[in-house]
TrEMBL record:
Superkingdom as given in the UniProt entry: Eukaryota
Protein's name in the database: VWFA domain-containing protein
Cited PROSITE patterns: VWFA
Segments of this protein annotated with the region Disordered: 546-566
Keyword annotations of the record: Calcium, Calcium channel, Calcium transport, Disulfide bond, Glycoprotein, Ion channel, Ion transport, Membrane, Metal-binding, Signal, Transmembrane, Transmembrane helix, Transport, Voltage-gated channel
Primary site of residence: membrane
GO terms, molecular function: metal ion binding; voltage-gated calcium channel activity
Signal peptide coordinates: 1-24
InterPro entries: Ca_channel_alpha-2/delta, VDCC_a2/dsu, VWA_N, VWF_A, vWFA_dom_sf
SUPFAM superfamilies, per database record: vWA-like
Annotated GO CC locations: voltage-gated calcium channel complex
Membrane topology value: Single-pass type I membrane protein
Domain VWFA as annotated: residue spans: 283-477
């Protein structure tokens, strides 16, 4: 029979109410028995709330004059303006700080006279190299305060010429800095980073170090005035990056052939803040000569040049790439023809990916294979026409600033003077030329093309030249703004921490120190050695942690003068980047500094000398609109002129592995604020969102929108109406300080849950006067507020568990360093210290007196929790039990109590309190409060962990926690949440006992309860998830996975409704099988091809006269360019079977059962080889070796087995077996996830008697045994557990009958689609610093830089090339 007919028939039979007659053989429950069970459960759970003191706590809030207030539209607008003023003051303060840095830099540069330096000319270190300083520990008796930090060693000046500071050690005291996440810093000194492709002891760098030395005084002064400042810095055009406070720079290592090699790709001149401030936004057309002469090494250098050019473009620029060859032109994709692409990370990556993929194709299939003769005239005309069209375009297709053409070629037939006279007579379009190759011809011709068009010419002879020479075009772009003294402030979007600090923890235990005498320069291999003794391990732990000396291209005569430091350790022992700051998110503000001497103006050569900047943590903006002030579920967010998110509570930039997601900094408002009725187009949201347009246009107003509010990792959701208020953000001076206002690219949004009359749920209104003065509090008052332990002692910050009281993370003051350190350990202690301070001190730290007042009211109102420890046995019901009692308030105040020592139970989730430090923004808090707000009475809410979490706990044989929570309400406002952690086993036993009795003397007949085999009873929560079941593995799953037909019947009766939610921030993983090393043995031709390819590249790089560190940089750069090849497109994203979550769990359960059976079997065997044979026969053979190709379940089973084998049997026993496991490369791919969720429909009345359902009679009912009265009919009983979020469900029928073929209600689908934004031009506005009508006025006479290595050096290395290539061939072939 046709499958469609089957499904329709199933729907008609299985999901219809077929009557309520009792069929012979079908067990029925009596309604009176069910009512009795449900009434008891309701009473016991709601009584638990009362015993926790919820009613008394609510009365205490009322007694302290806390009331409920519905916030109107006018009041909400005032709230927006209040938050707006705070953020605008922060913007202004940040801009003024970098203005101070810029002014000092210009003054120092203007009066500085360059010198001809050598390393021995100084009396102290010319500057502190961040990547090459030694840490000097702070004396234990001094401590880690700012005043204890000293300057670099040696302190005493040396006589000129007595010390060679290129080889002399520099030490710096570094200690944890509470103002910078406890990263080790020095606040008396800055340190400097120089890119590895620049010789950091060159005369040019030493001069830069000299004139930038005075910036330390400004850094320190700024930090003293503003205690919230994080990183301050200045990046020069020469590449020196001056950082304050001083740090030890982390140099990443990457493994090449078992030797860790340092990879330091950082260059301040390629950072967004630098590029934004240095130039106006630009439209750029990149022309690549792809004629036959560009084959081989020229093609490699051209692609690398393209990559570096793209790295200099930021999100406010527009670009396109045009290749010309064979007397024609080609765009990289037909989709990009005759248009300009916004230079987002995604678009730049797409261009590189398309070119990289083309290179992997067969020669006959390639589109961009170098061939034929190039038509320069055709290409140049195309570029000018494209820029002409862009000039007249809107902001969605043009940057609206300067226009440039980048020409990459190895020769030119003429200088095309007539063409430039026609298309660029006033030289308002700059032309930059990049001549590729050592043997390149027509240098003067190519140079003339650049000079005639206000551009710049460079020759790129080797890969080593690419990065530095591409950078040379940026100062040329800055000439006009330098001449105009156009001092504009720029703000970046969100970005990951850019300051690479080292983790101060000890090196990994498996690595040991290698003697200094074993170290040499170049590519010396330092294989990791396993320490065999305690002494060796101690030596490894105590080894000096110092990046290797900077080894870079050096001028003739300087080859032996390397910046080596004594005590260097091998590269493989480098530390990791400090995890405390690695993934912190910042926004940078920057301003360009110019040469202000009159000579540069008269010569018409505006000179950019550098860019000043600082980083502002995005959570510093977010905390200016705190949750305790905004109300339940309300939040603020910020967006840029491009519609990209700066911060948003639902923004997820970090993936599950703790790494930043691809393109996280280009996440759009429309990806997060999704209308409930929105339908994706090609897997993407609609970018015509009214909210998005209004914020980009920087207007003030509001708009209503219904969205799906999700909880618990999108496993629960409900539709909620929000009103969005929005306004532009300017940089505005605080009242009374100044009157200046400057535009920024940001807009502020305020989202409030909204009802018919205003904000709903309503906010809590606190009294105007605090219960105590919020300053100079005595010790007894602090004890009354927070903990009885404070009566006789001060707060012990190191032991927060003593006080059973805590605070959510909200910095209510601009703390001093000492208080910030205390806050970092225990916010409660910092609060107590602040409340003890005089009023003047609190005002000096800009403390929030409204917060201090509220938290004191909360503390006094919740003192009922003081009695939890002494009244534990009275409070906690004996039959249910509890392992933890807790409460939170709207201000983030938390109280908790663990069982007394004589209680057999202990806390199940030890990380519960620490993991829920978001206060009222916590998902459990919000969900509890939201459910309470939709109910007329107090509601007790039970929440189970996710099904995956329960499965993991059951497998590990650990207890499963269930959380009972209830909102604390004052009228209609929620002021807190009280709750308990319950052991599931105790709750399940209680449920069995409560449902195992019948009403005496009613109806007669046999007593049927939930304990019988043909009756299955459950408690479901409001999202359809199982809270209690006879099978513990059902807990946390949605009921459609446990009993699909019964769930579908309830949906059909409108007891539950479906809610669709789209996740446009999802990142999926594509697994690509990789060849094992053994397979190469059977493909010698492939091995030889790989060998030849590798040898060519290695030989070419050596021929290019690269030093060791530059070679590492180029390798990393090539890998970076090739990264696109491992990133799949959205075409690889497919729909998944909606039943996969349940299917996967069943696969895991089957594999676990097989492993357990095999483990029991082999345990008695002493012979390891026999064990291995049995494991191979029983597990590897059926699950991996003999699996069916392309069967998803069998693939999952094999992968899961390979993961579990080492866990069960130990890696030593099964290491050989693991060779048979499949190996995959995992790559992130873009995808959109559609989640279909369930929500209880409270307005739908429940049936008072059984609902009947029947499985289809078409073979979909499996395992119905005749001897067991197998029947395909079932009765379903439902009751609401009053006063709770629970529904009681009982299903009676043949337990051996499993209705299959039922479609799941809760599904997860991956939707195909593209995220390439060029295919759907989004509305955007230009930033405030764009200059659409700018006129170039600079002189074009300085327009060239030639980089050709001397012939003698090239010749001298030919013998070395032959030797190294031969040696590497032998080494490489040994791998096969």
């Amino acid at each position: 029979m046709d499958l469609t007919v089957t499904v329709v028939l199933f729907a008609l039979i299985c999901l219809s109410d077929v009557g309520q007659q009792t069929q012979a053989g079908l067990v029925t429950l009596r309604d009176s028995d069910i009512d009795q069970w449900v009434e008891k459960i309701s009473k016991d759970l709601t009584d638990f709330r009362t015993k926790l003191g919820a009613t008394k706590i609510e009365k205490a809030f009322v007694d302290r004059r806390v009331t409920s207030r519905v916030q109107t539209e006018t009041e909400a607008g005032q709230l927006l303006q209040s938050v707006r003023r705070r953020i605008e003051n922060l913007l202004w303060k940040s801009e003024n700080n970098i203005k101070n840095i810029r002014i000092q830099a210009e003054k120092s540069y203007a009066k500085y006279l360059p010198q001809n330096y050598s390393c021995s000319d100084f009396t102290a270190h010319p500057y502190l190299r961040a990547a090459a300083i030694l840490k000097k520990k702070v004396s234990p008796d001094v401590g880690a305060t700012e005043t204890a930090k000293t300057t670099a060693e040696p302190a005493a000046p040396a006589a000129p010429g007595s010390v060679d500071y290129c080889v002399e050690e520099a030490t710096l005291e570094l200690s944890p800095d509470p103002r910078l996440y406890d990263v080790e810093t020095n606040r008396k000194n800055s340190t400097s980073h120089v890119p590895p492709n620049i010789y950091d002891a060159s005369n040019e760098i030493l001069n830069v170090a000299n004139w930038t030395g005075s910036l330390d005084d400004v850094f320190i002064a700024n930090a003293q005035k503003d205690s919230t400042l994080k990183w301050q810095y200045f990046g020069t055009t020469e590449g020196m990056f001056k950082i304050y406070p001083g740090i030890q720079w982390y140099v990443q290592t990457r493994n090449y052939t078992q030797n860790d090699m340092p990879i330091d790709m950082f260059d301040c001149r390629t950072q967004y803040w630098y590029l934004l401030a240095a130039t106006y936004p630009q439209d750029m057309v990149i022309l690549i000569d792809n004629s036959g002469s560009m084959k081989g090494s020229s093609s490699i250098m051209a692609n690398k040049t393209l990559t570096e050019i793209l790295h200099t473009l930021n999100v406010n620029d527009f670009f396109n790439v045009v290749m010309f060859m064979n007397m024609s032109i080609k765009y990289v994709s037909n989709a990009f023809n005759r248009t300009m692409l916004q230079a987002t990370e995604m678009n730049k990556n797409t261009i590189m990916e398309l070119i990289s993929n083309d290179e992997k194709k067969k020669e006959s299939e390639r589109q961009f294979s170098p061939q034929g003769v190039s038509d320069f005239r055709l290409a140049l005309v195309e570029a000018f026409e494209l820029l002409r069209m862009a000039k007249n375009q809107s902001a969605s297709a043009s940057a609206g600033g300067v226009q440039t053409i980048m020409l990459i070629t190895d020769s030119a037939p003429e200088d095309f003077a007539d063409l430039f006279q026609k298309y660029n007579p006033d030289q308002q379009i700059r032309l930059f030329t990049f001549l590729i190759g050592q043997e390149a011809t027509d240098e003067e011709t190519v140079k003339a093309m650049a000079c005639r068009n206000r551009g710049y010419f460079v020759q790129i002879a080797t890969l080593a030249d690419v990065k530095e020479n591409v950078q040379r075009y940026v100062p040329v772009l800055a000439r006009t703004n330098a001449l105009l003294r156009d001092y504009f402030f720029v703000w970046t979007g969100v970005h990951q921490n850019q300051i690479k600090t080292q983790n101060p923890e000890a090196p990994p235990a498996h690595m040991s120190a290698v003697p200094q005498e074993a170290q040499t320069g170049g590519f010396t291999a330092f294989p990791p050695l396993t320490p065999t003794t305690a002494a060796a391990r101690a030596a490894a732990a105590n080894a000096s942690v110092l990046p290797s000396p900077i080894s870079t291209p050096q001028p003739p005569g300087k080859q032996q003068q390397q910046l080596r430091l004594k005590g260097d350790i091998p590269q493989h022992q480098r530390k990791e980047e400090d995890p405390r700051v690695k993934n912190k998110l910042f926004a940078s503000v920057a301003q360009a500094a110019y040469d202000i001497r009159n000579q540069t103006v008269s010569d018409g050569l505006g000179h950019l000398i550098g860019v000043a900047g600082l980083d502002v943590p995005v959570n510093q903006f977010e905390r200016l609109g705190p949750a305790w002030e905004l109300g339940l579920m309300a939040y603020i967010f910020m967006a840029t002129n491009n519609g990209f998110i700066l911060f948003h509570p639902e923004f997820r930039p970090v993936n599950e592995a703790g790494e930043m997601q691809m393109f996280y900094n280009n996440q759009d408002i429309a990806d997060v604020e999704v209308p409930a009725d929105g339908t994706p187009t090609n897997g993407r949201p609609s970018y015509d969102l009214s909210l998005r347009s209004a914020m980009i246009q920087r207007v003030t107003g509001f708009i209503d929108m219904v969205k799906v509010k999700t909880f618990d990792d999108m496993s629960r959701g409900t539709k909620q109406k929000f009103r969005y208020f929005y306004a532009p953000l300017n940089s505005t001076a605080p009242f009374g300080v100044a009157t200046e206002t400057r535009p920024t690219p940001f807009s502020l949004g305020l989202a409030l849950p909204w009802g018919s009359a205003g904000q709903w749920p309503p906010v809590a209104a606190y009294p105007t006067a605090p219960p105590f003065d919020s300053h100079s509090l005595h010790r007894e008052n602090l004890a009354k507020l927070f903990s009885k332990r404070l009566i006789n002692s001060t707060c012990d910050a190191a032991k927060p568990e003593l006080y059973k009281t805590g605070l959510a993370e909200f910095e209510f003051c601009d703390f001093s360093s000492e208080l910030l350190a205390e806050y970092g350990v225990n916010p409660l202690c910092a609060l107590g210290s602040v409340l003890e301070l005089p009023l003047a001190r609190q005002q000096a730290m800009s403390c929030s007196f409204e917060y201090l007042k509220r938290v004191m009211v909360d503390a006094l109102s919740t003192r009922e929790a003081y009695e939890w420890d002494t009244n534990w046995n009275t409070i906690v019901p004996a039959q249910i039990g509890a392992t933890l009692l807790f409460l939170w308030t709207g201000t983030g105040l938390a109280r908790w109590q663990t069982p007394p020592t004589n209680d057999a139970q202990s806390v199940i989730d030890a990380s519960f309190a620490a993991a829920r430090r978001n206060g009222s923004r916590d998902s459990l808090y919000e969900r509890t409060a939201l459910l309470a707000s939709s109910s007329d009475s107090s509601l007790t809410v039970l929440t189970a962990p996710s099904g995956d979490s329960v499965f993991a706990r059951v497998k590990a044989n650990t207890s499963v926690p269930i959380y009972l929570t209830s909102a604390l309400r004052v009228e209609s406002s929620v002021v807190g949440v009280v709750g308990a952690e319950i052991n599931y086993d105790r709750l399940a036993n209680y449920f069995v006992n409560a449902t195992n009795s019948c009403v005496s003397g009613v109806g007669g007949g046999a007593c049927v309860t939930c304990a019988q085999t043909n009756v299955r009873c459950y408690l479901l929560d409001d999202s359809g998830a199982v809270v209690v079941s006879e099978s513990q593995t059902d807990v946390g799953k949605t009921f459609d996975i446990v009993n699909c037909p019964a769930m579908q019947l309830m949906i059909n009766r409108s007891l539950f409704v479906t809610v669709k939610a789209f996740d446009f921030q999802a990142v999926c993983l594509k697994k690509t099988p990789v060849d094992s090393s053994a397979s190469t043995l059977f493909n010698p031709i492939r091995a030889l091809m790989r060998l030849a390819s590798w040898a060519f590249i290695e030989g070419f790089l050596l021929l290019a006269d690269l030093t060791s560190s530059t070679l590492r940089v180029i390798k990393a750069g090539a890998q970076e360019f090739g990264m696109a090849s491992s990133r799949s497109t959205a075409e690889d994203c497919h729909r998944v079977d909606a039943s996969r979550p349940d299917s996967i769990l069943k696969v895991y359960e089957r594999v676990d059962a097989m492993i357990a059976e095999t483990a029991d079997l082999v345990a008695p065997h002493p012979d390891a080889s026999l064990k291995v044979q049995e494991i191979r026969r029983r597990l590897m053979q059926p699950l991996c070796i003999g699996r069916t190709a392309d069967d998803q379940d069998e693939e999952e089973a094999c992968e899961y087995l390979c993961k579990r084998l080492p866990e069960q049997f130990g890696i030593g026993l099964v290491s050989d077996l693991l060779a048979g496991c499949p190996k995959f490369d995992e790559a992130q791919i873009d995808c959109t996830v559609k989640r279909t969720l369930l929500r209880r429909e409270p307005r739908q009345p429940l049936p008072t008697s059984a609902m009947r359902l029947q499985c289809p009679l078409l073979g979909l009912c499996e395992a119905c045994q005749p001897e067991a009265n197998g029947s395909s009919e079932f009765n379903v009983y439902v009751r609401q557990v009053s006063g709770t979020n629970l529904m009681f469900v009982a299903v009676t029928g043949d337990p051996n009958c499993d209705c299959t073929g039922c479609p799941l209600a809760v599904t997860t689908e991956k939707l195909s689609g593209t995220r390439n934004i060029s295919l759907q031009q989004r509305f955007r506005e230009r930033p405030p610093w764009s200059r659409p009508n700018v006129v170039l006025i600079d002189n074009s006479t300085v327009c060239s830089k030639t980089a050709v290595p001397s012939l003698t050096i090239l010749q001298s290395q030919r013998w070395l090339l032959s030797f190294v290539v031969l040696l590497n061939l032998l080494v490489f072939s040994s791998d096969f």
